[in-house]
Amino acid sequence: MWQSQKEHMKRCAGLSDIRKPGWRSIPIGGMLLEPGSALKYKTGDWRAFRPIVDETKCVNCLLCWIYCPDSSIVRKEKFVAINYDYCKGCGICAAECPTKAIRMEEEKR
Amino acid sequence: MVTLKELTTEEFFTSGHRLCAGCGEGTNVRMVLKALRGPTIIVNATGCLEVASTIYPYTSWRTSWVHVAFENAAAVASGIEAAYKALARRNAWDKHVDIIAFAGDGGTFDIGIQALSGALERGHDFLYVCIDNEAYMNTGIQRSGATPHGAATTTSPAGKKIPGKPEFKKDLIGICAAHGIEYAATASPAYWNDYITKLRKGLEVEGPAVIHTFSPCPLGMRHDSDKSIEVARLAVQTRYWPVYEVEKGKYKLNIKVTKPRPVIDFLKMQGRFGHLFQPQFQHEIDIIQQWVDENWKRITELCGESQVVKR
Amino acid sequence: MTRTMGLTGDEAIAYAAKQSNVDVVAAYPITPQTIIVEAFSEYVFDGEVHSEFVCVESEHSATSACIGASLTGARVFTATSSQGLALMHEMLYIASGLRCPIVMGVANRALSAPINIHGDHSDMMGSRDCGWLQIYAENAQEAYDWTIQAFKIAEDDNVLLPVSVNIDGFIISHSMEGIQVQEDKETLEFLSTRKPALTIDPDKPVTVGALCFTDYYFEVKRQQVEALDNSFKVIRKVNQEYKALTNRSYDTLETYGVEDAEAAIICLGSTAGTAKAVAKKLRDDGKKVGVIKLWVYRPFPTKEILETVKNLKALAVLDRACSFGAPYGALCSDVLSVLHGAGKELKVFNGVFGLGGRDITPTDIESVFNEALETAKTGVVKEPVKFIGVRE
C-alpha cells in the first residue's frame, strides 16, 4: 500500500520529493495563480477498467468526447483516442458509443 | 443549434480534478464551458464541484474562478457585476465579462435561495447554472429541497416506517420565473444540443438567466458509473425532468416527450429508490408517477401544449 | 481647504465614503446604521457619485457582494450594526481570509436577545477574532477621518485586510457635530486609485477560494497574522500623511494626562470623551488621573499600551460589552494579557458598563476614577469586575 502510494505521488508533479512551501513562499489568501495546474495530478491510476477504442468502428461522432467528465477523450483526425493519464474508467464512453466502438477491459496492474 | 465538431476543443475545465468517476457535474461543467463566448469569470458555491476542482495547489480552472461560501454564489456574482459597472463608469474597465455562477441544488434551492432571489430581483447581468444532483451530495448524500419524493438519503433514509423523503421537489424555474427574469430553463446533459443552445441564450441575455440542469451522481443516486448519461436521458424520457424554457414569461416546451417511458424505468436504475420495490412501499411508485403526470400536465399547459398522458 | 459641516456620525461616515470615491457599496439597513445607507443612496440617486449601490437582501449577501467586488480591484464599502454584523459573521472571516480590503462602518449596537437598538460594543466584540482591523472612533470627526484613512490602510500591499470603523450606536451615529472636512479632490489625491497586484481579471485567470487541506490552511492563516503585524507601520504612515493634509493627528491610541497620573481609565469610543472631561475636572482638583483611548483595537497595540501605562499604579478598564463566562471583558482580557506578558506590576480592575445603551454619566466615571485612585494608594483591587450602572 505504502509502495503504490509513493508511486502515485511520484507521478504527480513536484511535491513528493521536496518539502512543501512555507507561508512566505505562497501567494496570499490561498490564491492559485497557475490556471489548470490540476493537469499535474494524474487521475489515471483510479481506473479499475480501461476503455479501448476500436478505430475501425469509430465514426468520430464525438459523443464520447462531449460526455466524458474528465476530458479524457482526445479528438484525432478520423477517430478518437483515450488519454489514459486521466481516464478514471467510468465507462460512460463505452455505454454511450452508438457503434459500440469502445469496450471496457479490466485494468492490469 | 450546435454541432459537436464546431465546439471548441479548448478545455477550460481541465482533467486532473477529483470528481468521482462518471460524475454528472464533470459532464455538465464541460458543456457549460463549451458555450463560452468571451472573457468569463466563474463564481462557484461550496459543493462537490468546488471542492474536487480546487484542492490546493491544484486547480482545474482555466478561467478566473471564485469560491466564497455555500449560500452566496448569486450574491458574490452580484458584487462582481456591480464592480465592473462602476469601474467602467470611471473608465477603469472596458471589457465585457460574462459571469457564470455554479451552485448545486443545496446552494440554490435551500441555503442559497435568498441570495438567488435577491440577485434576480435586482436584475444583475449573469448566468446562474444550478447543477442539480438532488441531494447534498458533497457532505454525504443528505436530502435537499430538490430531493424527489421517495428518494433515500442519509437524512431521509429508507426506514421501516418512512420510506425515504416524504416531501416533493421544489419548482425552481417557477420560482425564478416569478421574479420576472428574461430567461429561465431546464436542461439535461443527455441533450447536449438543447443545453448548449440554452447556455448561449442565457449568456446573451442582458440581465439574470437561470438554467437548471440535471446531474446524475453514481455514488448518491446509486447507479453504475457508466450509466450517468442514460439516467439523465431517462429522467427526460419518463417526463420526470421536463425540458422547457421560460422566455420573457412565456413557457415553451423544448423536448416533447410524446411516448413517455413509465417513471419506474427511471427509478429502477437507481439504488436510492430501491426500497420502494418492496411490497409494502410499492404504492409510493404510483405516487411518484402521479406527481410526474401532474407536473407534466402543469408544465405543458403553461407551454400551451396539449399532452395526453399515454401509459 | 477645510470647511465645517454639520453631520451626524452616520452621515460623516457616508460622506467620507463618498469622498473616497468608492466603486461599490453593498449594504443592508439596520438601526442605527441606516442613515449611512440612506445618505449614500442619496448621493447615488442624485448622480453625485459613480458608485454602484447594491441594495442587497441581507447583510450576509452584503459582505458576499463586497468580497466579489473587492476581488475585481474595486474600492468597496459597506456598513452594518449588531444583528447584521452577527449575520455576516462567517463572511467576515472569509473577507479577511481572501485578503479583501473592504472598509465597513459599524454603528455598534447591542446584540439580541433581548432585542435592543442602542449602543454597546457587543457586536464588534463578538467578532473581534475575525481578522479585520478594528478602529473605534470617539466622535463624528474621528469617524470621518478614520474612514478615509481606513481605505488607504486596507489597500496597502503590506496589509490587504478589511477594516471596520466603529462608532457608538445612537450616541455618535445620530448626534450632530460640526466637523472639519477637506475638499473632495484633496481626499482623492490623498487616497489615489486602488491598483491591486492580483485581481480576477479574466485575461490573467486566477483561482480564489481553493480548498486548503491540513497541509496548507495554517500557512495562509500565518500570512494573515503577518499582515496584521505589518499594519502598525502602515497605520502610522497613513496617520502622518493625513496629518500633513488636514493637520489632524491620529495614532493607534490617544492619551490624556497619563504622563503624571497614578490612575487611569482605558476605554474605546465615545466614553473616552466623557472620561476626558471628568479627568480634567479631577485634575483641576489636584487628583492625578488620566485617560487612555484606544483608536486601534485590532491589531492590539501592545507596545504603545505598555509605554503609556508605565508610570501608572492602577488602571480601570471599561468594557462596553460582556464576555459571558470569561474572567474579564474583552478589552480588559487583552490589557491584562499584555501587562502580564511584560511582567508589569499594575493593579487592574474591569468595569462592564453601558450594555444596551445604558448611559454612563460623569458621576459614574468619577466614582471609577476615585476607586482607581484608592486602588493606586492601597494596592488592593476590591472588585476585579464591576457592573457599572446596572440596577441591583
SSE series of chain B: HEHEHEHHEHEHEHHEEHH
- Summarize the largest interface: chains and residue counts: B-C, 46 and 47 residues
- Multimerization state: heterotrimer
Q: Enter the CATH topology name of chain B.
A: Rossmann fold
Distance between the termini of chain A: 13 Å
Mean pLDDT of chain A: 90
Question: Strand-residue fraction of chain B?
Answer: 5-15%
Structural class of chain A: alpha+beta
Low-confidence stretches of chain A: none
Principal-axes shape call of chain A: elongated
- What is the terminal separation of chain B in angstroms? 31 Å
- CATH class placement of chain B: Alpha Beta
User: What are the low-pLDDT stretches of chain B, counting only 5+ consecutive residues below 50?
Assistant: none
Indicate the mean pLDDT of chain B.
96
Name the CATH homologous superfamily of chain B.
Answer: Thiamin diphosphate (ThDP)-binding fold, Pyr/PP domains
How is the topology of this model organized?
The complex is a heterotrimer of chains A (109), B (311) and C (392).
Chain A: H1 2-11, E1 49-53, H2 63-67, E2 73-75, E3 80-82, H3 92-96, E4 102-106
Antiparallel strand pairs in A: 1-4, 2-3
Chain B: H1 24-33, E1 40-44, H2 48-53, E2 64-67, H3 73-89, E3 98-104, H4 106-110, H5 113-122, E4 127-132, H6 172-177, E5 183-187, H7 192-204, E6 209-214, H8 218-222, H9 228-237, E7 244-247, E8 250-253, H10 263-267, H11 282-302
Parallel strand pairs in B: 1-2, 1-3, 3-4, 4-6, 5-6
Antiparallel strand pairs in B: 5-7, 7-8
Helix pairs in contact in B: 3-5
Chain C: E1 2-8, H1 9-19, E2 24-26, H2 34-45, E3 52-54, H3 59-71, E4 76-80, H4 82-87, H5 89-97, E5 103-108, H6 122-125, E6 133-136, H7 140-155, E7 163-168, E8 176-182, H8 184-191, E9 207-208, H9 217-246, E10 253-256, E11 263-268, H10 271-284, E12 289-294, E13 296-298, H11 302-308, E14 314-319, H12 330-341, E15 347-353, H13 362-378, E16 385-388
Parallel strand pairs in C: 2-3, 2-4, 4-5, 5-7, 6-7, 11-12, 11-14, 14-15, 15-16
Antiparallel strand pairs in C: 1-8, 6-13, 10-12
Helix pairs in contact in C: 1-2, 1-7, 3-5, 7-9, 10-13
